[in-house]
Amino acid sequence: MALRNLDDLAVFVHVVERQSFSAAARELHLAPKTVSKQIARLEQALGTTLFERNTRNLRITDEGRAIAERARVALGVLEEMQELATGGSQELSGTIRLTAPTPFGRKFVAPAIHDFCRLHPGVGFDLRLSDQVQDLYSGDLDMAIRMGELADSRLVARRVTDNRRILAASPAYLKAHGQPAQPEDLAQHHCLVFAYPGLLQNAWPLRKGRREKPTVVSGTLCSDSGDVLHAWCLAGLGISLRETWDIHEELRNGRLVRVLPQWEAKPSKISIVRARREPVPRRLTTFSDFLLERWRDAPWDAA
């Protein structure tokens, strides 16, 4: 049987991305039975089993996974054809699924989405916040905001601006423990360290002009959450190496104070990244351009 209904292919991709018939049905505003019928019809047309089903879970077959990758490309090509047919005049539509570090996403990505939606009300968003790196190839994510160097060369990246990191502590902590005079003094202080299984960021790459001084720190408090480290720093529990975008307001109102102000970490990058898939939907390029223009001058570093 020939594949005659492209809607079945789109439904199949939604089921793969959501890993659930019922979740895909809710997103598409369809009855679960309708989704099941469409998947069964697609399996019959393709002559293969796409999912292994039981009462507890749903597992995509190897054939289904290969077909899903090609289906995403095919649906993207169809979307591009529609845009060409309308001369790019059609309103942007569809959903952008993106991930970002939790604090940056809360403070800067969410407000940016709000403003973008006012310009393009036909675009929806699925924003997922996590302080751990999410794989853009194994799931349904379209793009990500990343900090630092990119370990995956398969990704397409657009550098936005520098990610400056400085040392900070609360006035109460410095009153109780004193202000270190040089990086070596940090060994005598409580330092708040970002960590999760397999990663401990306790080697702070400090520099003063061209002079570099990698400094190993220690402390009794570590976390995989930037928000938690921020809160501990405000509570006077130690010295933290924080991004300027994360603490610029607290520095201005005096709730935090710079430590070793002539020293800061070697800057990394803030980037917009996506998987290397073609074609790229116009909503993604338009949103990327919007973020680049909004953040390129690092507004959080403005005086």
From TrEMBL:
<protein>
    <submittedName>
        <fullName>DNA-binding transcriptional regulator, LysR family</fullName>
    </submittedName>
</protein>
<keyword id="KW-0805">Transcription regulation</keyword>
<dbReference type="InterPro" id="IPR058163">
    <property type="entry name" value="LysR-type_TF_proteobact-type"/>
</dbReference>
<dbReference type="Pfam" id="PF03466">
    <property type="entry name" value="LysR_substrate"/>
</dbReference>
<keyword id="KW-0238">DNA-binding</keyword>
<dbReference type="InterPro" id="IPR005119">
    <property type="entry name" value="LysR_subst-bd"/>
</dbReference>
<comment type="similarity">
    <text>Belongs to the LysR transcriptional regulatory family.</text>
</comment>
<feature type="domain" description="HTH lysR-type">
    <location>
        <begin position="4"/>
        <end position="61"/>
    </location>
</feature>
<dbReference type="InterPro" id="IPR036390">
    <property type="entry name" value="WH_DNA-bd_sf"/>
</dbReference>
<dbReference type="Pfam" id="PF00126">
    <property type="entry name" value="HTH_1"/>
</dbReference>
<dbReference type="GO" id="GO:0006351">
    <property type="term" value="P:DNA-templated transcription"/>
</dbReference>
<keyword id="KW-0804">Transcription</keyword>
<dbReference type="GO" id="GO:0043565">
    <property type="term" value="F:sequence-specific DNA binding"/>
</dbReference>
<dbReference type="GO" id="GO:0003700">
    <property type="term" value="F:DNA-binding transcription factor activity"/>
</dbReference>
<dbReference type="InterPro" id="IPR000847">
    <property type="entry name" value="LysR_HTH_N"/>
</dbReference>
<dbReference type="InterPro" id="IPR036388">
    <property type="entry name" value="WH-like_DNA-bd_sf"/>
</dbReference>
